[in-house]
Amino acid sequence: MKNPFVDWDIYRQVFPTYITQGLGNTILLSLLAALIGTVFGILLGALAGSRHIVIRAVSAVYTNIMRALPAMLTIYMIGQGLPLAGIKLFGDSTYGYAAFAIGLMEAAYLGEIFRSGMQSVDRTYVESGISFGLPQWKILATIILPIGIRRIIPALANQYILIIKSTSLVYLLGLSIEQRDLFSMAKDDVGLTGSLAPLVMAGVAYMILILPLTWLVEWLNKRLNRRYGTAGGGLESNTEA
């Protein structure tokens, strides 16, 4: 019986395309989603530290809803739901909606990481900014964020790696041939060949991308621990992917 996972002819056929096209699309999609998630994550983290209970409640409601919903459902609802509702933020670009869906979903997790970093900043730094008459937004931008982010770099890096893996779910939105990420290409090739070998090759391509990043995170974590003490310990990250 032929092994459904091992087919060297298929490996040789699909792997070059996965590296030259699928990997590039996956990286681009991950970068766009990470940018969107970071912007909204910082906003959520700042709102969570507000003195006003209503503002904190808005952040908490968004975070809890996004973390409670299955990732596939969230991506489908945002990526397909917005255009169907007439909210065409990206025109007819499925790629834009895919990045936006992942970014909004990951913002809930990044927001908690940023919140932890902001709240770890010693109050005396904030009081120094107040004593110099700095407005709240400037204290956040020049004092709280620079100090807080340094302490959550490993947790942030881990979450960005999970964003890369989350891109495998955008096949739900029906990307065009030129926009297909690694998993979308592998899924199509499985249908064409009747073999699971394309999925194996997609997995290899993901590992080529993710393993060096994982090693970099471990190196960063050890370096920051030696320099500043515990860095990023106890911060929550998305373990769903």
UniProtKB/TrEMBL annotation:
Residue span, ABC transmembrane type-1 domain: 23-217
Protein's name in the database: ABC transporter permease subunit
Organism, scientific name: Bifidobacterium aerophilum
Organism domain of life: Bacteria
InterPro entries: AA_ABC_transptr_permease_3TM (IPR010065), ArtM/GltK/GlnP/TcyL/YhdX-like (IPR043429), MetI-like (IPR000515), MetI-like_sf (IPR035906)
Keywords carried by this UniProt record: Amino-acid transport, Cell membrane, Membrane, Transmembrane, Transmembrane helix, Transport
Keyword Metal-binding in annotation: no
Pfam families noted in UniProt: BPD_transp_1 (PF00528)
